[in-house]
Amino acid sequence: MPDTTLTGDPSHDAPGAHGDDAAGYYVPGSPIADTKSPGGPIDERWQTRKFEARLVNPANRRKLDIIIVGTGLAGGSAAATLGEAGYNVKSFCYQDSPRRAHSIAAQGGINAAKNYKEDGDSVHRLFYDTVKGGDYRSRESNVYRLAEVSTNIIDQCVAQGVPFAREYGGLLDNRSFGGVQVSRTFYARGQTGQQLLIGAYQALERQVAAGTVTQYTRHEMLELIVVDGKARGIIARDLVTGEIETHLADVVVLASGGYGNVFFLSTNAMGSNVTAAWRAHRKGAYMANPCYTQIHPTCIPVTGSHQSKLTLMSESLRNDGRIWVPKKKADCEKDPRDIPEEDRDYYLERIYPSFGNLVPRDIASRAAKNVCDEGRGVGPEVEGVRRGVYLDFSAAIERLGRDGIEEKYDNLFDMYARITGENPYETPMRIYPAVHYVMGGLWVDYDLQSTIPGLFVTGEANFSDHGANRLGASALMQGLADGYFVLPHTIRDYLADGPFEKIEESHPAVVEAKKAVEDRVAHFLGTSGTRSVDSYHRELGNIMWEYCGMERTEDGLKKAIDLIRTLKDDFWRNVKVLGTNDSLNQSLEKAGRVADFMELGELMCIDALNRRESCGGHFRAESQTEDGEALRHDDQFAYVAAWEFATDPDVAEGMGTPVLHKEDLVYTAIEMKQRSYK
Predict the structure, then answer these.
(1) Residues 361, 366, 612, 620: which is the catalytic one?
(2) Potential cystine with 276: which of 56, 243, 256, 306 (Cβ 3.0-4.6 Å)?
């Protein structure tokens, strides 16, 4: 870890100093700081950093090798841009094509401060909305940069041919999203992620054809290679042949997405996992704010214990759909069309009149949980409880006509009908919150470099831009901003020290990394257990959802930690992995991923236990206002929690007591306030 990131004396952070709930579960470490962010006026910082970052001349770029793990919007755009710049890029994904990256599932849109609607938007307002939406737990320099480069993203994507929706005059259209009062979201019906990913994929394939990018599909990163304290490559498994491969480079970029699948049931793709980031964490990359999980309010409700995947309905539907439940419990079994208007509770419009159905995701999710907990949920009972609320388009259809709704949302309505067997044009949709996105991730500085020199992290895999809650349509914005416009400028400052000494596969650090992977694979295949990997994953997910989901308590989190530790110990002794290592073996793939989810889940609970405040998606029952809103404690918790991995030879896989480093959050361009959307 670079010495320049650590500052100060850790003594003031001793456990128990503020009645620390997590005392004994972690070790306090030295404070950490982002030393790469320039000072001065916030609107000049990015230009200052771009100018100060050293250059790499074209001849030297051809001598430098970059590994990029992940081909979603962040990874695909980074590989295309760095390949175009002349670097030698190796691009890895576990899917059979970069086009299958989970970015393709994003539906509603991408934010940009273009102010096409002339409704008061600006770079500063996008910056303000994002910091406020994140409940003042994000880093202001990074967020301002994100808002600043957002306008470039749209121009880039239009030039690539992305078919954004247009209004009658031919200009790009916008719609609004939760947490804001302006229209700044560019969209391509309900297929925005797909269209943006195709644009990045085309740019990537152009560089593959040019020879600057080499693609490795069906390869999963299983270990980070660190030589003399610097990231110098990865160990990957060919998922088809089973071969354990060594890939070396001068720098490694992780663009491997989020870890929402730790909950088992989520809106993430089934293959989404934390392994790439977690293996880096075990090698010294700090994990920041892991407890910050986003629960999306607009998902198709769970129908039973048979499910292994939840389906997201785009948040854009909240532009025209009205959310309600019956006022009377007795009406919950009725056909919603038979419930008169005066007996409906449009609870978001009632509680939050300024924003109504467009409140941020964390607030909409908790409100839905509250009305269902009151016994006013709708839909079929699952384990004795109705977990659903109505998303009703009848007023919008009356106002715009069915054709108008079809033009905006037809593929989303069709998807809902195919999954549920219900016609949303005639009967209100039923929705309920589900795990969707994670704001936590590997700690990075302003250059997107982790605490391991030479390891950069982009997109959802890092923590830097969203605080405790992500506003809708900001994930695609961050992924493309990082890949197209941020990383290519910041990574060159590190690469300017090249060409670097070449590392051979015979180097002891490389041999050790490869052996660790081989031993881990051998353990899974050699354990003659009795339980399937999926059964462990489902049990872990149940623990996480129950005790570290929409509401957390001290007692619940401590219970979860004990349960996870017991489950993890049993997993290492009793998991059953069928098949061999020399062919396609999805059971083996899952075993490694679930092993990492176990450790991550424990750290998430420790992080949530330490943060005795409510902010954004992290809601501690002990910290709320009189009317049930999230209550922050800026005097104690206005910091980024950056966790360092610690080893313990007496514990399975060597996980010991984590070390907490705190990065103070200082705002110079914005005032910290208690959030209100009323």
Answers:
(1) 361
(2) 256
